[in-house]
Amino acid sequence: MTKVLKGIAASDGIAAAKAYMLVQPDLSFTETSIDDPEAEVKRLDDALAASKKELELIKAKATENLGPEEAEVFEAHLTILADPELIGQIKDKINSDKVNAEAALKSVTDMFISMFESMTDNAYMQERAGDIRDVTKRVMSHLLGVTLPNPALINEEVVIVAHDLTPSDTAQLDRNFVKGFITDIGGRTSHSAIMSRTLEIAAVVGSGNATSEVKDGDMVIIDGIEGDAIINPSEDQLAEYKQKAADFAAQKSEWKLLKDAKSVTADGKEVTLAANIGTPDDVVGANDNGAEAVGLFRSEFLYMNSAELPTEDEQFEAYKKAIEGMNGKQVVVRTMDIGGDKELPYLPLPKEENPFLGYRAIRISLDRQDIFRTQLRALLRASAFGRLAIMFPMIATVNEFKQAKAIFEEEKANLVAAGVKVSDDIEVGMMMEIPAAAMIADKLAKYADFFSIGTNDLIGYTMAADRGNERVSYLYQPYNPSILRLVKRIIDASHAEGKWTGMCGEMAGDQVAVPLLAGLGLDEFSMSATSILKTRSLMKTLDTTKMQELADKALDCETAEEVTALVEEYTK
Predict the structure, then answer these.
(1) Angle at 268 between CA 263 and CA 270, to 5 degrees
(2) Number of independent structural domains in the chain
(3) What value does the mean pLDDT take over residues 376-389?
(4) I want to staple 527 with a disulfide (CB 3.0 to 4.6 A). Which of 29, 73, 192, 531 is the partner?
(5) Is the dihedral of CA 302, 304, 305, 308 positive or negative?
(6) Tens digits of per-residue pLDDT, 193-208?
């Protein structure tokens, strides 16, 4: 029977393929006494052999798709599977306690996990606990005869159905086979949504119940433009969406013609359309989509994709590659933004009640200056190879910015004194994502060379709404007059000091928000690379005088809905 699920349109595109359920199976079991320990040991050996075969396949696939470093985690898993101490203890337990293999496996691995987790002063050992947990889950699935989903092993066209997708899940997706995805939770700014736009695959998030409504192998249409998913569509619906996909492809071809055009409004005002990137390799996509700069390079990928803190040289090579790749166009690098939902296994952070309001981003950098100074030295060295700007995330006070800038100046002076070539014109700015900072934007603008508005967090903090919580997702309101007033305040403060303001949150590429932002005087719009050409096309139709009038009226509205209606009226 055909069903339609409503969700949030997260990434433009239309996809139709069989459903692949990325849902964790039930691994519960009952402990039983056994009469034949030998047969039970044989069951364990078979499960270990099947797990080894699977992991070797996954490792090969990960090496091919992500590179040898990323695949190292699976080598660690293979090592655990072959550990005589661990496996020996499981077999001993089967033989001595006469229990089934599942019970012996869980009992022994639980003991090892808690032992490693208790080593709070040894991050490497704590990380091993996570590896043992993963390996146990895999062996258990073979003992119970259930299948663990594995996105890395997909070898036919599918639509992924999941409760949510972690960054490591999305890193394993092969664009040749994964045509789209739908999740139960999440919003337009969740990691899975941002990643789907980078991968250019159709996505619908926050559907509420996709995992319970869809069965493995169901035919599913994902409409990432409207935010719908159609389960087991009719022939007529398939034909209709095939046409819709063709129309969208034609529209994309039209936008492609603007790749080398300037970003200019109908009345001749130039703005900068930039790309948000996560790795140096994303520069290719930025250039292919006509980016005039990189407005946000999320440097935390270097930390998250490593088994230990990345060295100064490793970071230098990554920044240099991105800067050179942009051929003289500006690259704005955000310093390490770890914390909140971005954790590092080798840098255990304190467990906090509200991690998004806790020890994160610049707060960690100012506290752990060894990490911060290493990053700044790498950036300073890379600045000699192109046009670099640096921005600090999560600045709340003038003193925080001054302190971070002073450390930057100190490291710069040290390198220059040592005869290292460093650029003379690195702009040093800050993210505007905390309402307190927005309220003193006039003070901060005296010290920062530029502002970049991070609307994903600014909206969350202003509306007191967690962006990952679907129950309050209705409060993620980029067009709410309160948000627009903060944005205006930030832009006006920077302009009064002769500085510029960019925006690197998802709002910058939002087609309803763009006319408002043009009217508010935003200088740089930084977005997923795939949104640039669509935005350039829209920009050509906007008259800034008319958009200023629109923005003034929007600031006086009472609700986000009124603002949306106003934008529709002005852009007809």
Answers:
(1) 40
(2) 3
(3) 98
(4) 531
(5) positive
(6) 777 887 788 999 989 8
Same-domain check for residues 389 and 243:
no
In order of 94, 111, 401, the CA distances from 89 in angstroms are 9, 11, 54
* DSSP 8-state secondary structure symbol assigned to residue 383: G
Is pLDDT of 557 > 60?
A: yes
Q: Is the domain of 301 the same as that of 245?
A: no
Longest dimension (CA), the chain: 86
The mean of the pLDDT values for the chain is 91
Domain of 334, CATH number, reads 3.20.20.60
What CATH number has the domain bearing residue 95? 1.10.274.10
Q: Annotated catalytic residue: which of 77, 142, 504, 557?
A: 504
| CB-based contact 547:569 (threshold 8 Å) | no
pLDDT at 164: 86
Q: Indicate the pLDDT class of residue 57, thresholds 50, 70 and 90.
A: confident
The pLDDT of residue 67 is 67
Catalytic-role residue among 77, 142, 191, 557:
191
Domain boundaries, position 187: 3-23+151-253
Regarding whether 481 and 343 lie in a shared domain, the answer is yes
Chain centre to alpha carbon of residue 162: 16
Mean pLDDT calculated for residue range 538-548: 96
In a domain, 32, yes or no: no
Residue 191 annotated among the catalytic residues of the structure: yes
- Cβ-count burial of 8 within 10 angstroms (0-12 exposed, 13-18 middle, 19+ buried)? buried
Task: Using pLDDT thresholds of 50, 70 and 90, give the confidence band for residue 65.
Answer: low
Q: Does 330 share its domain with 222? A: no
Domain co-membership, 488 together with 525: yes
DSSP 8-state symbol, 394:
S
Mean pLDDT to the nearest integer, 401-426: 98
| Section 91-114 average pLDDT | 95
Domain-ending residue, one of 102, 121, 144 = 144
Q: Please, what is the end-to-end C-alpha distance for the chain in angstroms? A: 39
Residues 396 and 247 in one domain: no
CATH number at residue 158: 3.50.30.10
- Reported as a pLDDT band with limits 50, 70 and 90, residue 339 is confident
For residue 200, give every residue at least 6 positions away whose Cβ sits within 8 Å of its Cβ, in sequence order, or none.
11, 13, 175, 530
Angstrom CA distances, 366 to 46, 181, 409, 426, stand at 51, 39, 14, 20
In percent, the amount of the chain with pLDDT more than 70 equals 96
* Cβ burial 370-379 (10 Å sphere, 16+ → b, else e): ebbbbbbbbb
Instruction: Single out the residue in 230, 253, 276 at which a domain terminates.
Output: 253
Q: Which amino acid is at 7?
A: G
> Quick check: helix, strand or coil at residue 33?
strand
Q: Whole-model pTM? A: 0.75
